[in-house]
Design goal:
2 domains, globular, Urate Oxidase, single chain, binds uric acid, alpha+beta, 5 helices, 8-stranded antiparallel β-sheet
Length: about 280
């Protein structure tokens, strides 16, 4: 029977597989917490059209594989672990054409007790996450995109916003001295798949933060671009970087109503609505 429909793009897998790994040393422990997503593409047509599960690796099995590979992995980075997981799944599953692994790492910091780093106790840090997405097809190369998300930062000087369109619906006042708060998310693509990913990540993060702090900003857009430029300058192995910087407005409170001056000191931070500024910056050919 000819059908009026056909299966188009499809993928499946397990998401939000949470994992804590403790590495035990003689004088203390290291630990990390990850949230892992594994997605498969492949020959899954008859699973959709006929309910034939003979080529389906159960998502429950994928979850177990996440833990199994974590248990035996010697990888020192999320990217390295993702590559091992992908290789394992591809080698055992010829029906799978490609595997994508996405990992978010939660920020845990070593606890300080009596001014000293504690050997085995930790506290949750900020909302900042480190991320990676690694993909490989059968017989293909790894594509590695890493990033960070939800890094909340604020400038309290050197931020202006003037010269924008003034029309009948404009109410915003120009300012040469405003607060600039954002929750930075960034993702960058590596040109190859074999680096010290942790060191590259640290360099990119520090370059972006240094520029954010030092920039004399005429807009979020301009500061975003400058941060992306300094990230690409700091890490030649990255081909392009996407930055997302919501403008988390801090609004000056009018105290003149109460007979008091407010020399740019008292603000109300607002979460919604926020500006949404996003751009990708890449190397010229
Ligand atoms: O840096 C800014 N860019 C904008 O596009 C914009 N729009 C706005 O209302 N405030 C700001 N600030």
């Amino acid at each position: 029977m000819s059908s009026r429909f056909q299966l188009a793009e499809n993928r499946y897998g397990k998401t939000r597989v949470r994992l804590v790994k403790v590495t035990r040393h003689a004088h203390g422990n290291d630990m990390f917490e990850w949230n892992v997503r594994v997605l498969l593409r492949g020959d899954f047509e008859t699973a959709h059209t006929e309910g034939d599960n003979s080529k389906i690796l159960a998502t429950d099995t994928m979850k177990n594989t996440v833990y199994y590979i974590a248990g035996r992995s010697k990888a020192t980075s999320m990217e390295g672990y993702a590559k091992e997981l992908i290789d394992f799944l591809l080698s055992r599953n010829p029906q799978v054409s490609s595997v994508e692994v996405h990992i978010e790492s939660v920020l845990w910091k070593r606890l300080t007790v009596d001014g000293k780093p504690h050997p085995d106790s930790f506290m949750r840090g900020s909302d900042e996450h480190q991320t990676t997405t690694v993909e490989r097809a059968q017989n293909g190369e790894f594509a590695v995109t890493s990033g960070l998300a939800d890094l909340v930062i604020m400038k309290t000087a050197n931020s202006a916003f003037t010269g924008y369109i003034k029309e009948s619906l404009t109410s915003l006042k120009e300012t040469t001295d405003r607060l600039f708060a954002t929750s930075l998310s960034a993702s960058w693509s590596y040109m190859s798949d074999d680096f010290n990913f942790n060191a590259e990540r640290t360099k990119l993060r520090e370059a972006m933060l240094k520029t954010f702090a030092g920039h004399t900003s005429l807009s979020v857009q301009q500061t975003l671009y400058a941060m992306a430029e300094s990230a690409l300058e700091a890490v030649p192995s990255v081909s392009e970087i996407e930055l997302t910087m919501p403008n988390k407005h801090c609004i000056l409170i009018d105290l003149a109503r109460f007979g008091q001056e407010n020399p740019n000191e008292i603000f109300v931070p607002t979460d919604e609505p926020s500006g949404f500024i996003q751009a990708t910056v890449k190397r010229t050919a």
